[in-house]
Amino acid sequence: MATQRPPRRSTDDFATWQPVLKLLRAAKAGKVAEAGTDPIRVSGRIGRGGWSLALPRPVPPRGRASQTEDIQDEIDAVERVQTALAEAGVDDVSFSAEIDPAGTAVLRLLGPSPAVEPGIGTAHPGALILVEDALPEPWRRLPDPSHGAGPASSADPESLERTLRERLPDAIGATEEEIAAAEARLGVRLPEELKALYRVTRARWEDWGDDYEAADGVFAAVRCELSSVDELYIAEASTRRCRWEFAAMKAVETPPGAEVQGLVGSPGWIVFAENGGGDQLAVDLTPGPRGHTGQIILIGHEESVGATLLADSLTDWVLDRESHERRHRGEEPPLVAHVNHASIKSVREAAHPGLEVLSIGVWDGAPFSLAPVTGLPRLRTLCAYADTLADPLEIAELTGLEFLQLGPQDWRVLLDAGAVPRSLSAASITAYGGQDPLPVVAIANEILALWDRPRIIQTVLEGNLGPLA
User: Which of 207, 206, 226 is nearest to 164 (CA)?
Assistant: First the structure.
């Protein structure tokens, strides 16, 4: 007898959401402050890869770690929605619901919109992308020309190849045709040291079969988890994905004495290996003012800007003659300034001609005027917590802003005055988890409308959850 498939569920079907809403209602009603005859308001976010719901987690018995079974009801309820999302081809959706004491619920599904990044751990929207495909300035930055840069004196392709053949006598090397194919695919000529390495071993798993010891032997010989000649890639800025609200807070800086340019990515960073911890090793063809062409750098997976010098040459790296990056501390003021009770204490103190990012955080004193930063030529990002600005309309004088992050009240002031800077490429509304997402979404849609960008669509579903158990 054929097994019956479970019925398909739609994201627009109230029954899909009913178990999640019941759990949220029970959790909210359990709080004394939520008891009574007033409607209960709940919100959250569910995506195909995770979820954020204000549900309590049970404390496991002493001596036992938390287990899946402890929150099985939550998992079952979420998976019901995730299945519907997958069938609809939707990655993520946030929601808000109002539930009256009789169990009647009005559920509003919020989005998604191709112009809005998902929020993090909240039903509130993330960054609003006002200009299609816009990238933050650090992600648009190309390397400065490496005038006069050349290989390190230690770079020795012949010695490198000889050493590797001694270490890997049975390795299968890449042919000249395979090396040429890699160069054609990348659009860059490989440095001689990298060619020498791959002439000894092309590092294809098919050459090792299931012999992991053979692979480990190659990795030990080159002191990293070597990628095959077919897997070489260029670490351009697009390979380092970062949310707009975080990326806009970064700045690219290369001091005059730096060995490595402080870039997000470069057309001259050829990734050829990993270190086993998620970081990439690259040959650097666009070094800093004090660096060498072909030096080996580490692109950290926990960082979004810059790289660390490992060795002056691939020869040095394989022979374990590591270099230590010389840090050149400059006296220049920071390009990214944080004004708050624990850091810089005033906007005036933060202001200087090179300032790119101004972040005004937790502050219990008088609000700040933005007059000291008006007219600064490179200021492109402003983030300000609620009640930290003396006059939000001063933002209109910051004509070079490409990213602006404010609380709902300050956005309301700008919108009502028609003073939202038209130079913006992206924007964000700072709202905390306990705030009703609906007013925040309304403000987001007003901002999106100014650029004629796709709005956050609300889908209203109604149903009854029955009496509260």
Answer: 226
* Overall size of the chain counted in residues: 469
Q: Of 24-33, 219-228, 238-247, which range is least confident?
A: 24-33
**Residue 322: per-residue pLDDT:** 65
| Spatial strand order in the sheet of 357-360 | 128-129, 426-429, 403-406, 381-384, 357-360, 336-339
Strands (E), 56-101: 92-99
3-state DSSP call for residue 236?
coil
Place of tokens 């590092």: 203
Distance, CA of 147 to CA of 76 (rounded, Å) = 61
Distance CA 285, CA 269 (A): 6
- Angstrom CA distances, 381 to 33, 395, 407, 421, stand at 39, 11, 15, 12
Confidence of residue 331 (pLDDT cuts 50, 70, 90): low
SS3 370: coil
Nearest residue to 231 (alpha-carbon basis) of 203, 266, 197: 203
Q: Which residue has the tokens 């933005």?
A: 370
* SS3 category, 145: coil
How sure is the predictor about 469, in pLDDT bands with cuts at 50, 70 and 90? low
Closest to 73 measured CA to CA, from 55, 91, 86, 61? 55
* Structure token pair of residue 122: 């909240």
Centre a 10 Å sphere on the Cβ of residue 170 and count the other Cβ atoms it contains: 8
Q: How far is CA 182 from the centre of its chain?
A: 29
For residue 40, CA distances in Å to 53, 183, 422, 461 come to 15, 62, 39, 16
Q: Running DSSP on this structure, what letter comes out for residue 32?
A: G
Quote the percentage of the chain above a pLDDT of 90. 74
Which range has the worst mean pLDDT, 24-33, 177-186, 440-449? Answer: 24-33
pLDDT for the residue 28: 85
Q: Residue 373 above 90 pLDDT?
A: yes
Which residues, other chains included, contact 142 with Cβ-Cβ below 8 Å and sequence gap of 6+?
A: 266, 267
Token representation of residue 144: 């400065």
Determine how β-strand 233-234 pairs with β-strand 225-226: unpaired
